Amino acid sequence: MTEEAYGDVSRETSSEPATPAVVAAVPPYSVSRETSGIDVYEALQADLANDDHGGSFGGDVSRETSFDTPIAREAMQAVRVMNVRQEEWPKPSHPRVITIANQKGGVGKTTTAVNLAVALGLHGLQVLLIDLDPQGNASTAMGVEHGVGTPSIYDVLLGSSSLSDVAVPVEVAPDTLRCIPATIDLAGADIELASQVAREHRLRKAIDELQDPFDYLIIDCPPALGLLTLNALVAAKEILIPIQCEYYALEGLAQLLNTVELVKSQLNAALDVSTVLLTMYDSRTRLADQVADEVKEHFGPKVIESVIPRNVRVSEAPGYGQTVMTYDAGSRGAVSYLKAARELATRGAAMGSHNEDGE
Length: 359
Description:
Strand order of the largest sheet: 3-4-2-5-1-6-7
CATH architecture of the largest domain: 3-Layer(aba) Sandwich
Number of helices: 17
CATH topology of the largest domain: Rossmann fold
Largest sheet: 7 strands, mixed
Structural class: alpha/beta
Radius of gyration: 21 Å
């Protein structure tokens, strides 16, 4: 691979086979503004505009820009995901506290939480991610230390620390994204909090006392409906439910929705299932389409249009202490999460304007 592959996407380099390692290695600032005499940013903007209207990457952009080759298309997608153009998404009128919950394991809760958080942070929004799962997988994906003895959300729930005390800047977007890590100590929190007064309100109280400004506070829940998840449901106004495109994922959904209704009636009347995200979609199976259709029929406009496909890069990224957004920014998984995050941000801004109109 020549040095040209890290700068201009030219004819000489476009004939080389696409390799994810190359795309992941391209630093966001190294994309030149010259591509065969045509402004690469204008070409990207035209092509991405075509994509937003249902087109594919490559669209109507001329062959002279060399964007019709596999490596060029992946590079173009990486430019978009890593926000080379410094695009800023609209801020919500009020800070949004979103709990990502589903008591079924393996549906993509943590993967969704970390990738949405990174995408929002890369586009100028202030994001705080709370890892409320004793496994600490979200902390791993953020590259944040979460060994025994690390100040964590456990200390916050017990009242010995505030959220500001334990928040850690995330390397990929240190000015806009912070993470509250989880340690293995959190596994015993259910027992330790059982005898405490207002144990369901511990996290909500900590968020109310938070002085640091944020646009999005995202809570990653464990795969259970215990006291930790209950704290997250009481603390949030919105729930995002990731649903795997398989039959078993639908079976546990009724139980989760019943729990949400109980919390609304007893502890948090403002709680609402605002967003549903379909994950692990396999276009080769008819079952995935059937599940997607059922979910869309039940939840209607709450379902995000972008569907997250099965993608090996999404699974590989945590092993390197990264999200797919930085591990392979040109992959299908990264692009899909980017679109989902953008829709989440757009909806948030629209919700604020509707509320103001209603007032």
